[in-house]
Every structure is written in C-alpha cells, then in structure tokens.
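Quick one, T. Sequence first:
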Amino acid sequence: MILEARNIFKSYGSIKVLKNVTIECHKGKIYGLIGANGAGKTTLFRILLGLIKQDSGSIEINSQGIKPIGGIVEKPALYGYLSAFGNLKVFAQIQGLKLTKDLFCLSMEQVGLSPTRKDVIRNYSLGMKQRLGLAIALLNNPECIVLDEPFSGLDPMGIFALHELIKKLSSENHITVIISSHIVSELTDLCDTLYVLNDGEIIKSGSTAQLIQENVTTFKISGKNLEMSEVLKDVSAVFLNKSALVSPKSMSISEVLHKLTKEGIEITACIPQTDLKALFGREPV
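Structure tokens:
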C-alpha cells in the first residue's frame, strides 16, 4: 500500500467538512473520488498534500522518495508571464531541485508538451496548462499524485488526451493517481477503484465498474425507426431524437435488445445512464 488515510475528521468552526474518512491506495493504480460540489473532495486533497492539518486521524505514505506525493489542487498555480521553463524553474527551486535543460526536456516530454516552445504560458490552452501543472507535480518523482478536478473546463478532446496521459503515467511509471470529480463519466473508464464522498463521508467504495453497474437503472438506446417498436412502447420508453430512454422493470435490457432485433430494429448503441441520485446518495449539485 502506497497511501492510507484513516479516520480523517476536519471541521471549520461548527461545519464538519470531513467525517471519519478512510481511503487506501496501492501502487500503480488509479483511484477516483467522486461527489457533488461541496462534498469535501478538495479538503481531503489538501490534507493529503500536507497543505492543511486534519483535526484527527492519520495519513501514512509509504515512500522513501524526496517527495512522496505531488498534486494539483483546484487550478494549477502558474505564472502566466513566465515561459514553461520559467515556471518549472521556480517550482523546482521551491522543491530544492536544480532544473537542468535535460530535466526540463524530460519533464515536458513526459506530459506531452514541446520543450522548444519559449513563449509565456498565458498563451497556452487550458489543457496545456493542466499538463504543465502535472509536470510540476511530477518534479522529484513522487510515487503518488492527486489531481483535483483536472478535467474542469476541458473540451472532449482535451479530456480524452488527459485520460490517456494519466493512464500512461500509471501503467509505465507505476505512479498511483487519485483524481476527484463531480462528473461520473470523467472517471468511469479511467479509475480502477471509486470512492463516493457525500457530505464529508465515504458512503460507497469499490470497483468502479461494479459501482457504476449497481447504479444504472436507465439505458439510452440509439437506432433507426425506434418509435415504430412495440417493445419500446411496452416498456414505456421516452423517445428522443433518434434515441429512446428505457428503464425496463419487467425484463432485462438484454431481453429488450433481443426483442428489438427480432422486430427488425437496427440498434447502433446502448449506453447505460448512471443514476446520480442513487450513486451520490442525493441529487448532485
């Protein structure tokens, strides 16, 4: 085990932000921390990074490295008037590290950025700034990193690119990654394990695939001539543009699809829709 946070409590005055939170993370795995806005995700990450102190509970990081854990909390704190080299140099100095040209090139290439670009980073896209923030988090080779809402504001291609980068860091460098989000789809195909945080408490945890499957009640079926199907009418489907939302109760979704095929309906996709209210324990904000 690379990181263990056990029985973490944190309050600000009379407001209890974290209540008996426990998470366990193993080397080279990707963990998701999902919860509605205000659930306590950022506070937990600040505690893990040592930026604030928990009221009670313990944090154990099993690493002999210079920097056991790195991360980005909220948006990367970058200097817009400096170049990528200038930013990395400042943060390297803060961490007691001399930034050589070779190290700079390696850091940039590790996160998919060009080391030859010399303009100030205020010209960078949001996705490029996220990658540069990640390069800073990876200085001094931490074995574990935490990323607080790293996909916020990114377009679909930016999200996909960051997904692939995180997977590569985990698989090739054996880095443990803990990612927070309030959007389920951002974590579904990325994380091995999911922790669900609701009002400061971990209410569910386990295999991401299993948790998602347990909280799916509706399926979005896409295809041709769906409105002509008697089967879909029997299961009270809600018809949308070239798709239908189905919440089958008297039969399984596989039975619905089988009967649609027998009707001659051409199905192009069937996408499970996660019940966020059930997953989060309440309606997400």
